[in-house]
Amino acid sequence: EVRGYSALMIGETMFVSGLTMFLTAPIVGRLMLRVDMRLMIAAGLVLFALGSFQMTWITRDYDFYELVLPQVLRGAGMMLAMVPTNTIALGTLPPDRVKNASGLFNLTRNLGGALGLAVINQVLNERTDLHIARLQERVTWGNATATETLNMFAQRLQGMGDAALMAMKQLSQIVHRQAVVMGYGDAFLMLTLFYAGLSVLVLVLKKPASASTEPPH
Length: 217
Hints:
76% of the residues lie in helices and 0% in strands. By secondary structure, it is an all-alpha fold.
């Protein structure tokens, strides 16, 4: 919305996260044989929090290269958190119960994801509206920068209709775009605090059996 990326450009940016997950998967599998899975989940959540925290400074000028590191951190964090979580949730069940448990696990995960997206969208809308209101309070005729910008737009649009009205619309679009960016920054800050809190709560989980422990015969 802000940068005007096409679907292909968005896919190229998100590909970094997918590639990181692909490369991290075998490493996570090996670590599960040697490391407490609770620590792995906590480390994954911390990485995800760090990736989100880096996005709290996002501006409209961020391009592919500024987004690489946050995507790498979130991709690695997702694998470190999700694979051990699946193992803890399903790994101790007898084979005849795994099928139903897996379905229930996927259902709760999807419901949690839908709820999370709804909360993020609500926060984004509310914070964007708040930033629009605050920016509009500053962008007034008494603001020299705003007045100069408006006059500059009006001069550029001379001979193209109502230059003053068109200049006002352009300035309004800039305010809205900046408010959206600031709203995304607030949403990422919320995610940072959420994942940081979860990383602490993970440590109260009961210690799972080692992935390398063989079942009794």
